[in-house]
Amino acid sequence: MTASTTAYPVGTPGVAWGAAERAQWLARQRRQRSYADDVLSVVERLRPRFEVIQYGQLDYGDQQFPLYAFKSQPWQPDLPVALVTGGVHGYETSGVHGALQFLEQRAQDYAGRVNLLVAPCISPWAYERIHRWNPDAIDPNRSFHADSPAGESAALLDLVAPYAGQVLLHIDLHETTDSDESEFRPALAARDGKPYEPGEIPDGFYLVGDSGNPQPAFQQAVIAAVEKVTHIAPADARGEIIGSAVVGHGVINYPVKQLGLCAGVTDARFTTTTEVYPDSPRATPQQCNDAQVAAVCAALDFALS
Questions:
Q1: 94 pLDDT above the threshold of 50
Q2: What are the two backbone dihedrals, phi and then psi, of residue 283, each rounded to the nearest 5 degrees?
Q3: Could you tell me the residue ranges of all domains in the chain?
Q4: Torsion over CA of 139, 239, 172 and 178, rounded to 10 degrees?
Q5: Name one GO molecular function term (predicted).
Q6: What is the pLDDT of residues 249-275, one digit of tens each?
Q7: Is 243 helix (H, G, I), strand (E, B) or coil?
């Protein structure tokens, strides 16, 4: 998909938002689905199989969102930790439901081999509104750093802190959608008072590795597994995916810690960010969830081999 060049309806072009523009933007957001129905109901169903911990609560207006994570039961201190995160961007649906499907269908396959720590829906307010930001117009996935302005990011950092040095693997589950170009990148440009430069949405799954620790064999093992479930995004005419050079089949790299991305919250040896494309005519919602599960399993299999 190639984006439209229509001006964003909030703010003045070239002028960064102030409090009034943020309030105008917030007033446009509408609740479209239920965190309680879609996520918390599954949390309750899975309680007998895992240790479920509430690692925080987000209070936004008259809504309260408890944040839950799952831990292997029993937790074995002599085993490495694998961190799985989803829903950092609440609108990226298969990140949430892929993490929950992994817990329901495949997590027990790794019992006694690794301690799993799974946070399936980091941004529940945004999940309900099918949005990228939190209500303060902050992107949690640029906010994983000390003194984070995003409650979603700060809560996850606190959850992970006790396991510093034990995390072998972190896989962060995301999507790239057509709305990245129709809504979210134009909103970002408007918020920051910058010109919007249209981009191109790749058709297919890809991975974002860490340019500081790229682990190409690991990334390709995940790609190979996912390719059995859904198609892999090709490079564009410039040899890029979303503006970054393709460094291997379906793989680009970002400096994850420098950018404050979720994939940089640990010093894990193996890290990757999945990017499913749910708007492809060649993919169904279930296929997107299955691709996320395949990626998690392939990442675990490689890291534990």
A1: yes
A2: -135, 140
A3: 35-127+139-175+198-304
A4: 50
A5: hydrolase activity, acting on ester bonds
A6: 999 999 999 999 999 999 999 999 999
A7: coil
CA distance 91 to 149: 20
Length of the chain in residues, anyone? 305
- What predicted TM-score, i.e. pTM, was given to this entire model? 0.96
Long-range contacts of 105-109 (CB under 8 A, 24+ apart): 105/293, 106/293, 106/296, 106/297, 107/49, 107/50, 107/70, 107/72, 108/49, 109/297
Distances (CA, A) of 211 to 181, 182, 244: 24, 28, 11
Q: Which DSSP letter does residue 181 get?
A: I
Q: Is 66 helix (H, G, I), strand (E, B) or coil?
A: strand
Which residues does residue 51 pair with via DSSP β-bridges, in sequence order?
A: 71
Q: Identify the architecture of domain 35-127+139-175+198-304 in CATH.
A: 3-Layer(aba) Sandwich (3.40)
C-alpha angle 157/162/167, rounded to 5°?
85
